[in-house]
Amino acid sequence: MVLYTLIPMEQIFGEEEVEDEKKKKRRTIDIGGAFLEVAQVNEEEYEIVRLISSNPSHFLDARFQPGKKIGLKPFWH
Fold first, then answer.
1. What's the predicted TM-score (pTM) here?
2. What's the angle, vertex CA 32, arms to CA 31 and CA 34, rounded to 5?
3. What is the span of the domain harbouring residue 69?
4. pLDDT, mean of residues 51-58
5. 30 is a domain residue
6. Is 56 a domain residue?
7. Residue 44 covered by a domain
8. Alpha-carbon Rg for the chain in angstroms
9. Nearest 5°: CA angle at 25, between 67 and 13?
10. DSSP strand E in the chain: where?
11. What pLDDT, on the 0 to 100 scale, is given for residue 15?
């Protein structure tokens, strides 16, 4: 769902839900030209929050699907 609004997220989703998302450690990583914003779930695992790319084929690739959990080690070696 996409909301195009000027209303702050806290008023739409509630402050607790927004604060929980902000508490997660986030970083942006580059995988084959696709930039992924990921949030740390635990020490070894990240969850894809969003895909940042201008290549339409990246959005069709199941590996980059938001919500998918990925390991940290394969991307750093």
1. 0.63
2. 65
3. 24-76
4. 92
5. yes
6. yes
7. yes
8. 14
9. 60
10. 26-31, 34-40, 45-52, 69-71
11. 66
